[in-house]
Amino acid sequence: MSLTVAIIGRPNVGKSTLFNRLVGKKLALVDDTPGVTRDWRAAPARLAGIDLTVIDTAGLEEAFDDSLEARMRKQTERAIEEADVALLLIDARAGVTPLDHHFAAWLRKGNTPIILLANKCEGRAGAPGLYEAFELGLGEPVPISAEHGEGLAELVEALLPYAPPEEVEPEDDDGAAGGTADGKPEPVRAIQLAIVGRPNVGKSTLLNSLVGEDRVLTGPEAGMTRDAISVEWTYKDRPIRLVDTAGIRRRARVDDKLEKLAVADALRVIRLAQVVVLVVDADAILDHQDLTIARMVLDEGRALVIAVNKWDIVTDRAGTLKQIDDKLQAQLAQVRGIPVVTMSALRKQKLDGLLDAVFNIYEVWNRRVSTADLNRWLAGMTEAHPPPAVEGRRIKIRYMTQVKARPPTFALWVSKPLDLPETYIRYMVNGLRDALDLPGVPIRMLTRKGKNPYAED
């Protein structure tokens, strides 16, 4: 069991810096601008033997209307309710502010235990604020420096009373620790599923509709999501890690520093994903930026599903589907068979069809083909259309094997690999896709020089 810890406080006191410090990775965006974090995010950590689930939250604001700040505050309230203990962070260099007093009084009324942390206590500048923190009535403050990693030993000491008891591994008949000796199957690994697209196409709404709760902020404001938010979820007994990302605009239009950081985070998520759902707006389907994102996903070797959102408002559905097919044929011809799913995230329509498409493309992306089947196929392809001749001598393809999956990657042993034309490699890829049922995923074809490495001398 892990101890769930929520980091809370007013804007710009260093919550995301502390989050990154505890989890050991730069997962949360950090900037001097207040209000960078908007959705709460969780990640595992281990601190001095204590297993933690650390939650980074948006800055607490005194807002109770329908504004973005009020919606951020509600998200933080939910995170506090889920936590075993909350870390209230103040800026010791700025001193205790009226907003700190307000939220300390509010937190004292709740049921979640509170540990008060005075951040930015490196050097002497934070000493006055550290002593002022006693005024909040939350006990002795723990001096830390999230940026420099100071005070973590004192934080561990404060967390120990709330840590769950250590679990003792059962022993088998030989006295060894039990791993899988009890006969239980190995746990199924979660599918890494990223949701990407242009701003304001419904990515966050889709995530909320899939998990059945308002897990991330939604609203009419474009560019609301900044951090990539990961959510663990299960569908039909299949574990999925859903990741909502910031909207990706054309590079020429991105000039704000925070937006650049958010887009860079979204690109990082694409590189780490296994399946990527590209959400497009039914009013502007597969425009230039949509196609740019799709190419980016395919170039990274990820499996791609295109989700056409807001399908409930489309009148000419047959014409729209033909328009999509024409654009895919013209712009993404190198990867034929990309699945396209129509849906409505807001109305929760056809979401099962989207997830079925995700599972299907994931299986294709993981598919392996036996070497014997590949070489039988290779013989037929080269007989039907032999490789071209170079300087009067025909190029010979001697052997073929699959070197990896995810995405399917194949190696050809060729007499003159540098002279094999790109058009012939495309001929091979397209034939492989059709003959071995590999639609919609990128296929990589590598050329190697030399004879069949598996042939006997």
Automatic annotation (TrEMBL):
Pfam families: KH_dom-like, MMR_HSR1. One of its GO terms (biological process) is ribosome biogenesis. GTP 1 binds at residues 9-16, 56-60, 119-122. Residues 166-175 have a biased composition (Acidic residues). GTP 2 binds at residues 197-204, 244-248, 309-312. GTPase that plays an essential role in the late steps of ribosome biogenesis. This is GTPase Der. It comes from Skermanella stibiiresistens SB22. The lineage of its organism: Bacteria, Pseudomonadati, Pseudomonadota, Alphaproteobacteria, Rhodospirillales.
